[in-house]
Amino acid sequence: MNTTVGTLSLRPLDPLQDAELLHSWVTHPKAAYWMMRHAKLQDVEREYMRIAAHEHHDAYIGLHDGVPAFLMERYDPRYVELVGLYEPAPGDVGMHFLVAPTDRPVHGFTLAVITTVMEALFADPRTRRVVVEPDVTNTAVHALNEAVGFVPAREIEKPEKRALLSFCTREQFLATRGVAI
After folding, report:
1. Quick check: 36 and 43 in contact, CB under 8 A?
2. Neighbours of 142 (CB within 10 A)
3. Can you state the angle between helices 19-26 and 41-53, rounded to 10 degrees?
């Protein structure tokens, strides 16, 4: 996707080839909400090998002008992350994203990233609604989610955090892009 910040694209994550890069991202202080701050390289490798082998969970490296710059995970909430915490609807897809730490932030970059992620998820015609469950204290991501159409439903208790369960339909997302439905 071409954006005002450059070209953003996704490629499948390779758990072995990308482990060092991911390790540097998920252990950075800016990635505190990713909850891998103290992970060792082999922990990151093992986690993404597990995701790669999982039938209902995928991970992608996001590229900014061809250079790795963000991470996106897609999951089926019927089997991963939210099992028993809400009633999934047909076409629900769960999502996580992480923007790589940088010393040279680009204005509008994170919004462009989440927009690219949402476009990729909704490119699948089976996706009717995207589900997220960020930490309730992560106000920065709540604002980003709202900017692309997410509506909070309720707080839920996950084993690792108190989360804000939020949903975004295709129509809600398109409305934020100025697309008539």
Report:
1. yes
2. 18
3. 110
Strand order in the sheet with 129-132: 2-3, 6-12, 57-64, 67-75, 92-99, 129-132, 162-169, 151-157
Give 40's DSSP letter.
-
Full-model pTM: 0.92
For residue range 16-52, what is the model confidence (pLDDT) as tens digits? 999 999 999 999 988 887 778 888 989 999 999 999 9
Angstrom distance (rounded) from CA 45 to CA 19: 5
d(CA 157, CA 163): 6
CA 86 → CA 18, 56, 109, distances in Å?
33, 17, 31
How deeply is 47 buried, as exposed, middle or buried, from its count of CB atoms within 10 A (0-12, 13-18, 19+)?
A: middle
* pLDDT per residue as tens digits for the range 77-99: 999 999 999 999 999 999 999 99
In the Cβ-directed half-sphere of 85, how many Cα atoms lie within 13 Å? 24
